[in-house]
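Re: weekly structure request thread

Next one in the queue (399 aa):
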Amino acid sequence: MTSAADRLADGSTTPAGAVPPAAPATRRLVGLDGIRGLAALFVVLHHCRLSAFPGFPRDTGPGWASWLLYGHFAVVVFIVLSGFSLAVAPARRDWELGGLGRFAHRRLWRILPPYWPALAMSLVIAWTLVPQPGAGPPTAASVVFYGLLIQDVFGSPSPNGAFWSIAIEAQLYLVFPLLLMMVRRAGVLVMLGAVGAVVTAIGLLAPAVPAVDLLMRFTPQFALLFAIGAVAAGVAGGRWLRVPWGWLSLVTVVPVLVLITLRGPEWTVANFYWVDLALGPAIGCLLACLAAGRPGWLTRLLDTRPLRALGSFSYSLYLTHAPLVTVLYALVIAPNFTPGVPAFLATLALCVPVTLLVARGFAAVFELPFQRHRTWPELRAAIRARLSGRRSSAGRPSR
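Done, posted below.
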């Protein structure tokens, strides 16, 4: 859920807006920030939909808004994209991680500085204004579990309905070095097959074996989605670029979309495990397609300035939007608009711009500086330079 500029720069310093070099081994992969931004925006729309039409997973709203019930699939996109983005640099150097300590530092530095302030904001809103739907006010356990990113291990009232996936992604970071080791020793197909066998076994055994069912709280299907993204990153390293990845993505996604449409949201939610796995290859093929620079119209669209900008603070948008949507709906929309479509349209009109503006400001303080400056000394030096520049500017006599 972090920016492609950060994720792909594990050995590169190409800024997001720079013209990419010609060499495929070092060029910036266009379109990834656009995908990430659109996925984060879709989650915002999803929560607006749930606020105005309660009863999820039942479809209690108009048919034209039914597609907004499936915000979960944006997280599926995030997970595949996360595996892809993290693996691009290792794939370019024969699947070498580049140092376990360096990898751990970069992941912590990227995830935690925005996450902890967003957690504090969410706690304050839940304690003083409105808690998250279906949850009571957060407890001391909530502070500890969510602060340590173990909310999927120990249950407690949630301060933010979007935070469940952050813990999953952090745990996948722990698995990532093992995946690369398997690729180096046995190849990508063996790694993918091994992860797939474990995930499939869990899915099949969970309904009948209580001990295995306990693992479902970790959404183990995301491990295979993450691995699919990592395998797709091999294309970004210059391999298999001539394969028609775009057509493969279309061929694999259409049957899944047809099934979701025919069976409806209640069946889909009950079978997220298998539906997520079915969507994984389509998303992986799409990312491989973009890595190959095809189709040109799609890469250009996803790399437009507005979508790149949206992607640059998509992590902040994901982290901060849920409590804002909840409080705005409860305190502004619900008392003043007729339930149903009028309330839904008002929610969109108010919550979308507010969440975007708040996220952009939040990112300017808690996310973007940590992308630009990779260590505390670098960050402190940049802050001092900025403050010195402001003082110098303020001290100049006006003409």
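Residues 100-128 form the longest helix (29 residues). The radius of gyration is 22 Å.
Next request, please.
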